[in-house]
Amino acid sequence: MTGGAETISDPVSLKNKFEEEIGSLQMLCDQFQSKISMLEHELNKDKREYVNQLQRLYERNAEAIDKIKVHQPRQRAHDALQLIQHFDEFLSDQPLNSMIFTDPDKELSKDKFLAVQARIAHRYEEVERLLIDEFGRAQRDEKKMAEVAKILSEFKRFYESKKHVKKQIHSGGLQELKRDVQARLLTVETYGGETFLSEDVAISILQETKNAFNRASQLCEKSEVPKHSENILDILLRYLYSEHLDYAVELAISGISLAEPKVAPPAYFFAVVSQNTTIVLLLMKQYEDSVLPLIKGTVVEQCVAKKWSSSLRSLEQKINMGLERQLNAIIGYVRFVLTSEQKKADFRPDNQQINLQASAVRI
């Protein structure tokens, strides 16, 4: 503004210049202030409209919220009832009919989850193998062995490998009557011919109990050997007889329909009898070779013999009943075929005359 001069020659013009610049800045400030005021006004207006809109939406949804609050406990109670019904159906002896169990869309996609399932199975077997090794290293540490055995008891067993959930089978006249009524009136479950018997499982159990009998005879006091032998036999009868042989026969019997068959009845029970007989022969051999020498002439001999004979007799009675039902089913189907499909003239001879004269026979 001074034109590059070192001294100010015209201070009045400089003052006027400053006043002009200050006036211009003041005008710009007023313009910006009016824009700011206008924007603040629009912001407040939009804010009020937004709050009013939220208030209207809240009032509009208040009734729906009240209904949801009222129906939510009812919905929870309904869901709980459905869950109880599904559990009841799953634990019953009847085939699963609900869509939640039978709908194939509920299953995981095999193509999508095959790799994941394979990794899970591999890891499952690896953990099981590590636990078995840990159980072997924990010899003489009873507390550690009990903990590892408890964990191992939850791992895959024979029935899980067959994708079968063990059912609770009760004995008694009322339960047998209920089973017979279901077999006569309802559709029976045959499990696709699966016998649920395994000679490999039986041999494994028999080998373990054989080793247990040998350890008892060598490590226990002579006076305690009979009692420990009886305890080992009780375990053998429980897991091999009751939970394997007897269970398989019960399932096979329940799979034989008592109704008049109109189609050829499946003869799965004969396979059960065959496998059952093989396993029982192995069981009898171990009883004669390993149990009798340890209890002979002791106070527990009579009690053990009674348990043994009672178990075999019960199994034999059930097998006989199953064979009778299987034969009755086959005979019933033959009777149905003869009465409904067989014609009387099918086996009529061409010559209706019957020769009643017999020539003499020289002896």
UniProtKB/TrEMBL annotation:
Residues 13-68 form the Exocyst complex component Sec10 N-terminal domain. It comes from the Eukaryota. GO terms for biological process: exocytosis; Golgi to plasma membrane transport. Residues 29-67 form a coiled coil. One of its GO terms (cellular component) is exocyst. Residues 106-157, 166-358 form the Exocyst complex component Sec10-like alpha-helical bundle domain. Keywords: Coiled coil, Exocytosis, Transport. Belongs to the SEC10 family. This is Exocyst complex component 5. It comes from Teladorsagia circumcincta (Brown stomach worm). The lineage of its organism: Eukaryota, Metazoa, Ecdysozoa, Nematoda, Chromadorea.
